[in-house]
Amino acid sequence: MAEYNRVSECVGLITLRNPPVNALSAAVRQGIVDTVQRALSDPNVKSVVICGQNGIFCGGADIKEFGSNMTGPPLIPMIHAIESANKPVVAAIEGSALGGGLELALGCHYRIAHSKARLGLPEVSLGLLPAAGGSQLLPRLIGVPAALNLITTGRHVTAAEALQLGIVDQVTDHNTVDAAVKFALSVAGRSLDPRRISTHPCPQQPDLDAFFEEVMQKVRQSARGAIAPIACVQAVRAAATLPYAQGMERERELMATLFTSGQARALQYCFFAERAVGRWRMPSGARWDTSKPRPVHKAAVIGLGTMGRGITVALAQTGLSVIAVETQEKQLMEAKQAISAMLERGAKRRGVAPALDGVIYSQNIQAVADVDLVIEAVFEDIALKTKVFQQLSAVCKPGTLLCTNTSALDVDQLASETPNPELVVGMHFFAPAHVMKLLEVVYGPRSSPQAVATAMQLGKKMGKASVAVGNCRGFVGNRMLKPYIEEAFFLLEEGATPELVDQALEEFGFPMGVFRMSDLSGLDVGWRVRKGDGLVEPGTASGRSARIRQGRRYSPLGDLLCEEGRFGQKTGRGWYQYDKPGSRVARSDPWLHSFLGAYRAQHGLVARRIDHQEVLERCLYALINEGFHILDDGIAAGPEDIDVIYVSGYGWPRHRGGPMFYANMVGLAKVLERLEHYQQLHPEVPHLQPSSLLRRLVASGSPPIHKWGEAIKKLHSQL
Ligand SMILES: CCCCCC/C=C/CC(=O)SCCNC(=O)CCNC(=O)[C@H](O)C(C)(C)COP(=O)(O)OP(=O)(O)OC[C@H]1O[C@@H](n2cnc3c(N)ncnc32)[C@H](O)[C@@H]1OP(=O)(O)O
């Protein structure tokens, strides 16, 4: 797992071999220990180069080993042995040097990187800290502020930035191993003492206490309950204040707590889940590895409202040529300006040229005649979308894929309006579409595997977490959101306030509670849907019967606010009040509290004390219960699909792994027991009726999440 060769007569070349990312598995660590020993004891060897095969230095510790009993030589003594070697050791960094991979490189005396390489200590995103000396070595090398930035965010830096920061000694555009060997020859025989980072003092940081206090406050705020970023700050503080050996001891203690934490398990689950959803399967048996995507060179977007503009930007940024169609001239001109500005901003951020020429604007739908794929993004209205699909079917060349950007409409109904329903899929983007990570690719019963493969591949190119889901009302994300929001409304009726509900959810880790989120997205959106469903009635009726609609409990609170013109941030009033329309700072609104009081009195409801636990159990377990229904219905292939959707698109705290992982952590029996409890109290609420899959899982002994498949009839999970 580590190959040894002698090159240029006196350089020992060690090559890590563990595809795909040369992770530091037990075998690789053993290989490094053995080959380093061999190089150091060979009198003909004057210096050593460590590199990785297949253009990647090392992706860090083998994350798959974390769940098991770790065997093989430990990382820290291995890295210390390299640092204390009496021959220069040079790391030749191509591709990535991440986590333990970078720590290994920091143990080397010199680092040469290819210009396209990326380096970082991303352990924090796995719920860990760089505990093979990274938290102690990096601050000594590049100073406390820069090290804190890298370690607490886990961000990967380019080779150019690494050079600027002082992490690497040289960057090359040529063959990195050749450059490293040449470099190793040039430094043979030089004193290595100044190159041993562990012996450096940490660069002085003025006002250390105040500095760390401020950093800790910021990190706590952005961590939203995640513990690893805080431990990272504590570890770097140890580097800044303690001798190396004591700092290492502190690093070890902090890591010991993180390593076995539920948060680390959740974050590592997310890492693998995000990769597993790419291996999609459909209930028909079609799957990612047997369905060939069609080539897409040219795409079109129809409708340049907020969503269409974001989608155009996301497509153009992949390098595709895009025809952007808007029939209204004024809208088209405004969209052109907005899209160009977004492309320019994005390009500036990424340090590339804006793809302005990649977009051609047109008022005429005929302009899409020769594109390979169209994304329709007109207003969410089935009649309008149907009309557009009929036009597209007449205009587009044979074989063009027709995708609809919809958050809830029936993809199959649209498909049935075209002569080639197999070419139709839904692409549910989230606003702003060029920023948000999530894409639900919605297949109907007639969507071809090729159409799904093409949409999934396009999503990946756009950098989206793309999840293939079946066609049903709300697909996965919004279908699960419905009971969550309804429970929040019911809690208001029973005595809670928007502030209480939001606080409980934000303390759980959501960036915004349900009411602040609703104010942001606009209360009128849900109102329109409920009107369409025939649920909205004049607000004069009172009593329990007025709150039973279509045979189930219904809260008209959202409708009543809309009738008052309170649509949220855009009108300056919603569940909260705002300084002015469009303002973002939510303030508690006495009007709302008296409105709730009057509403309860009108309906004979007596307010009771509601605590955070009840808020979490009712909102989250109702959402999770819907997730079990979705799995049982075969709409999502496995729990990881649901979890990726919720973490990347709905603000579910990543360190809690997603709703289905969370249910697994809480214990399925507990979730079932609480749902049964609330269902007894609220028999007129069907979404509190535990799903049969949840019952089956509990009856079969609550298997761990990767074994749920055995209880799911239509499983196509890949984890
Ligand atoms: C008290 C105990 C002390 C223990 C000390 C433990 C020390 C830990 C320090 C660490 O090093 S933690 C690991 C830090 N490294 C990372 O977080 C890197 C994770 N990987 C990536 O970011 C990316 O994979 C990549 C390296 C940038 C490559 O990206 P690319 O898009 O090219 O490929 P992927 O699809 O992401 O990955 C391909 C394949 O490889 C698997 N994989 C990637 N990294 C690892 C890893 N470190 N360990 C195990 N497996 C890894 C990945 O899962 C993919 O496989 P899959 O089958 O498709 O899932």
Structure write-up:
- Its EC number is 1.1.1.35, 4.2.1.17, 5.3.3.8.
- It comes from Pogonophryne albipinna.
- Residues 474-578, 615-701 form the 3-hydroxyacyl-CoA dehydrogenase C-terminal domain.
- One of its GO terms (cellular component) is peroxisome.
- With 719 residues, the protein is of the alpha/beta class.
- It folds into 4 domains: 2-259, 2-enoyl-CoA Hydratase, Chain A, domain 1 (Alpha-Beta Complex); 298-473, Rossmann fold; 496-602, N-(1-d-carboxylethyl)-l-norvaline Dehydrogenase, domain 2 (Orthogonal Bundle); 612-634 and 637-711, N-(1-d-carboxylethyl)-l-norvaline Dehydrogenase, domain 2.
- α9 (228-241) runs antiparallel to α10.
- The protein starts with a strand and ends in a 20-residue tail after the last helix.
- Ligand LOW37U6P binds at residues 20-21, 23, 59-64, 75, 96, 98-100, 122-123, 126, 128, 131-132, 255-256, 259, 272, 275.
